[in-house]
Design brief:
This protein is mainly alpha-helical. It has 2 domains: 9-83, no CATH class; 114-174, Arc Repressor Mutant, subunit A. It is 67% helix and 0% strand. The chain is built from 9 helices and no strands. It has helices spanning 9-17, 20-28, 33-53, 62-81, 105-108, 114-131, 134-144, 149-156, 160-179. The two termini are 49 Å apart.
Length: 180
């Protein structure tokens, strides 16, 4: 957005004296003041600046200059409303336009079920146990119980670095099971 210089005191006074043109314009064009005041006011202020700084515009009435710039602002507003970003398809979780069954998206997504989650975890641990060492499974069990690497190393009679290496191997296996 352009950064414009503030109006001079003379321009502000002129703008205040003729401000009723904004409301006349909106009424004449049958535009809502609530919706369109912000659209046209900056064009109006630009018309004040132009009219008072450009001598060639003095051959026209200020109303003509002002109305022309405000009309342009309204046209630009409508043009921008027609762009793709303003006319995009709006989707909701409560409707599914691609599903002929009539189910909403929220009805097709499974809700969290604690028993199902527990079963999935047990199956994952079962698959993991087939692919890693007993020591690694013990470390996984201790880690899931909340032990930190230092405590696990002490219990397993090994170093923290070795515990971290074994956990990294377990992580690689888990990724392979889940995504491989």
């Amino acid at each position: 957005m352009k950064c414009e210089v503030p109006l001079t005191p003379e321009q502000r006074l002129f703008a205040a004296e003729h401000h009723d043109l904004v409301y006349k314009f909106l009424r004449k064009k049958q535009l809502s003041i609530d919706e369109f005041y912000d659209v046209v006011i900056f064009a109006y202020l630009r018309s004040v600046r132009c009219y008072l700084t450009e001598p060639r515009l003095k051959q026209y009435s200020f109303t003509t200059i002002s109305w022309r710039l405000m009309s342009g602002a309204v046209s630009n507003y409508y043009r921008s409303k027609k762009t793709a970003k303003h006319s995009a398809l709006i989707l909701s979780l409560h409707t599914n336009p691609y599903d002929e069954s009539g189910y909403a998206l929220e009805e097709t997504v499974a809700s969290p079920n604690p028993l199902m989650r527990q079963l999935e975890e047990q199956l994952l641990l079962h698959d993991l146990a087939k692919r890693v060492s007993k020591q690694q499974m013990n470390i996984v069990h201790l880690k899931s119980c909340g032990y930190n690497d230092r405590d696990i190393a002490r219990q397993q009679n090994t170093t923290m670095k070795r515990v971290q290496e074994l956990l990294e191997e377990v992580r690689s296996v888990l990724l392979e099971i889940c995504y491989g």
